[in-house]
Amino acid sequence: MADETVTRNETIVPVILSGGTGTRLWPVSRKAYPKQFWPLVSAQTMLQETAGRASGTGFAPPVVVANEEHRFIVAEQLRESGIAGARILLEPMGRNSAPAIAAAALMIAEADPDQLLWIMAADAAITDADALHAALATAASAAREGFIVTFGMHPTGPETGYGYIEQGDPLPGQHGAFRIARFVEKPDAATATTLIGDGRHFWNSGMFVASARTLLAEMERHAPDVARAVRIAFDARRPDLDFIRLDAEGFAAAPDISIDYAIAEKTDRAVVVPAALGWSDVGSWAAIWDVAAKDKGGNATLGDAVVEQSTNCYVRSEGAITAVLGLQDVIVITTPDAVLVTHRSQTQNVKRVVDRLKRDKRPEAEAHNRVYRPWGFYESLIQGDRFQVKRIVVLPGAKLSLQKHFHRAEHWVVVAGSALVTRDAETHLIRENESLYLPLGCIHRMENPGKIPLTLIEVQSGAYLGEDDIVRYEDTYGRN
């Protein structure tokens, strides 16, 4: 027994689930650039905050499970925050948390099936780091005995946006850990008030600690369809640059199911550690108002925002100055292409607006005007009949694909930095205040050979200006 204590791996592998879309935080959070990639409660993005609190002594480099469309955003944000050695596992499509966790457990089990995983969403806030690490130590102790441990957050009010966990009997030999009596679905206000009054119900944080061996065994026992499909997808995985791609056909066969429904509510090995961590899932604008710094009137602002003679408001601007006068309990969010105004009590229903925009086939439902690419980003400035003007920013050392268009010509004007441009058989170095014309059908590529970001203005002209009018011949980022 002593030898086992000496040799077992005491580190914990953080598993960060970054596949959500954060619909209730529209118009900032959208499918193409969801809330985990935004700084919502501090100067860091939610992903960076999550990775940061799970790094250092006692932690292995994280495993991040992400949508393949976001792979370069994830990699760049981890790099910016100094997180080294992360493994990024790519989902070909969203299948909820159970398949994502199963894939991470399979990868970690290859090296050590008894390795502990700390599973968490990429987009939650925690303010009490000391309490977090104390709770994590309790959870790890129980997890090493073969239990699947979740964290129950002490409720601060009758929240209807969270599920609840009822605490059962104490777990013998594990101080601070309890059997789970039951899980409770998101309740109505009256039921939530009753639940928080008995002292035995806690918010379900969605965080879990368990060994890879235990997770996979319980997945085989309670969700064999998930286990089978994910194993097929994992066995057929392939490397792609610094990423690991799960097989699309295999993963598509996995049921769309959460870890709660697949395992946690069925297993006899479920345990809860109650804790007060200053936790929030930051799942709505009202939740962000809750954790934001406020003035004497209870107002929180971010960006170019002005609040006068108003109370308990949250006003955020990502663009134009936004002023609120004589209002109470409102949320006002301004982005370059959309504005949301709602009462704080209605923020759980923002998804209805997004659903309406989707039905109307509005691009604002899923994408921002600024579109991020592995080489940088572009944004549309003006669009009219048969023409469009864009701003394009290319990171130092990055390059676009070698490509051509069937329906548009382009004119590039460099306004900062320098561009090395391939146009058919020619190569041109275009400096600040210089330009180059790219006729329809020419094969072209642009790269930034310098040490500062390249900024240029692109003027497109033609009968069709959609982003799908592109034929790639060669691409550094595997998008051929």
UniProtKB/TrEMBL annotation:
CDD domains: cupin_PMI_typeII_C, GDP-M1P_Guanylyltransferase. Residues 14-295 form the Nucleotidyl transferase domain. Gene3D superfamilies: Jelly Rolls (2.60.120.10), Spore Coat Polysaccharide Biosynthesis Protein SpsA, Chain A (3.90.550.10). InterPro entries: GMPP_N, Man1P_GuaTrfase/Man6P_Isoase, Man6P_isomerase-2_C, ManC/GMP-like_b-helix, Mannose-6P_isomerase_type2, NTP_transferase_dom, Nucleotide-diphossugar_trans, RmlC-like_jellyroll. One of its GO terms (molecular function) is isomerase activity. It is an enzyme of class 2 (transferase). It catalyses: alpha-D-mannose 1-phosphate + GTP + H(+) = GDP-alpha-D-mannose + diphosphate. Pfam families: ManC_GMP_beta-helix (PF22640), MannoseP_isomer (PF01050), NTP_transferase (PF00483). Keywords: GTP-binding, Isomerase, Nucleotide-binding, Nucleotidyltransferase, Transferase. Its EC number is 2.7.7.13. Residues 362-475 form the Mannose-6-phosphate isomerase type II C-terminal domain. Belongs to the mannose-6-phosphate isomerase type 2 family. This is mannose-1-phosphate guanylyltransferase.
